[in-house]
Amino acid sequence: MAGETPRRTGARRGQGLVEFALVLPVLLLVLLFAIDFGRLFGAVVSLNNAARIGASYAAAHPYAWDAIGSQIDIAQRADYRTEILRELTGANCPLDPDPVNPMPPTFPDNSLRFGDAAQTALKCRFTPLTPIISVIVGSSVPISSSAVFPIRVGVPGEEPPLPPCFNRTTVPDVEGKPLATANALITGALLLYQANPTYTGTGPKNVARNQDLAANTCAAVGATVTYEYKP
Fold first, then answer.
1. Are 144 and 190 within one domain?
2. Domain span including residue 201
3. What is the model's pTM?
């Protein structure tokens, strides 16, 4: 404005800088919220797609999980894993509990007949970037998704032989194994482990003893196997 003194102009510029400095943290926070929401939305979409891909693959190749266990079955199970992990690439949401091994499909009708259900259920944990969000919801946000497709191969009314623990898992024998080996066997069987340092008998230290669930029995996927050891 004509006639405005340089001192007044400088004061207004200084006031504008102060106001901008006050607003800037809020703007950055809003921006981080928007980024995290976009990342979360992308993770949910990717997980939903991965579950659908897994269920569709299991519906087209259900005999990969029958009792035969041929080399073709092994290759198809590997393809199932690869297809799911490919869909989750860049999703910023590692699978839970094992980031590199998706949960296998289940068959809610307890059979592999044509038209019966093949289901894939997946879980992952999303990690926010915004510290305030982490304080509110925790360091990670659990996300889950499942999909069901009808089995579309085979002869209606007939099914292949089923393994003894079909739709479940076999409890490994970990007694006498070093702790790291015992834990790896249990997690490899899609089970959880709980090690209790309460063993008072004789024998070497840091070796699994007195396991429960019993070895070579069938258990639900995700069940907990406890064992004792002497530190």
1. no
2. 169-228
3. 0.71
Same domain membership, residue 203 and residue 142? no
Q: H-helix or E-strand containing 224?
A: strand 224-228
C-alpha torsion sign, points 196, 199, 203, 205: positive
Instruction: Dig out the tokens for 43 from the structure.
Output: 């993770």
The one-digit pLDDT tens for each residue of the chain (231 residues) are 455 555 556 556 566 666 666 666 777 777 777 788 888 899 999 999 999 999 999 999 999 988 877 899 999 999 999 999 999 998 889 998 889 999 999 999 999 999 999 999 999 999 887 766 666 666 788 999 999 999 998 877 777 888 889 988 999 999 999 999 999 999 888 899 999 999 999 889 999 999 999 999 999 988 999 999 999
Q: Are residues 34 and 118 in the same domain?
A: yes
The answer to whether 198 and 228 have CB atoms below 8 angstroms apart is yes
Which class for 218: exposed (0-12), middle (13-18), buried (19 or more C-beta within 10 A)? middle
Q: Which of 92, 118, 150 is the last residue of a domain?
A: 150
